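Thread: quick sanity check before group meeting

JM: Hey all, I'm pulling together slides for Thursday and realized we never actually wrote out the predicted structure for the chain we discussed last week. Dropping the sequence here so it's in one place. If anyone has concerns about the input, flag it before I start.
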Amino acid sequence: MTRRALLWEREADTAFAIPRMKTPLLLAATALLAFSTNSRSAETKSLPVRMVIVGDSTVCNYPETDVRRGWGMFLQDYFKDDVKVINLAASGRSTKTFISEGRWEKALAEKPTVVLIQFGHNDSHAPDRPEATDAATAFKDFLRRYVDETRAAGATAILVTPMCRRTFEPDGKLKDELQPYADAMKEVAKEKKASVIDLHASSKKAFEALGAKPCEELANKEGDFTHFNAKGAKMMAELVMKELPAAEPTLKSHLKTP
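JM (edit): ok, ran it. Output follows.
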């Protein structure tokens, strides 16, 4: 065989050997890539719904040693394990101070799927208080920001109107100081095409049906017509949950009981 023929044969062997060597590696790499992609897809699908709650003292968590309870403490009980409830509500906060203290930024950093937003009690304080906001102006502006920034983070915003204070008039009707804030929240929900849970209306109906004396059993201490013990907070959680599946239908499949 001539030198030229020998070189041609070696080159031919090499040319045909490369595909034979590369083919198994290519198949293995393709399989690995497919497995990795499917794993990431499965992981994403199995990630829990992250429900972040923001609000005030009627919603927030309390230590076990404290008789006070917020309704946000009981929402996890209604959902399967694929829902994680993150209650970031804080006592004394309003739509304004929750943002100014950096709490809203931390809420968004939780990468929520759904955000429940209940304010109004502290917004309604006297105008000279730093947490106060006007129902017709600043309160609505802050609510718009909550909705817009929730959506920008890829989550669903659900507004929850503030429950009534349990302050009764002599005729058995509630002295309703929070109606302007509930109305403002519903107006923003309509404007933004956002879901709203009217806890103000449902709590008012429930409290007036009970009456002044039985409502005392919902309080954390005598003379407190705003905050709740476990019984009262569980009642508020139940009222929220009656409306939540309609407000966000995707949550229905995650409920422990339909």
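AS: nice. The radius of gyration is 28 Å. Helices lie at 3-46, 95-100, 103-109, 138-152, 179-192, 199-210, 212-215, 230-247.
JM: adding both to the slides.
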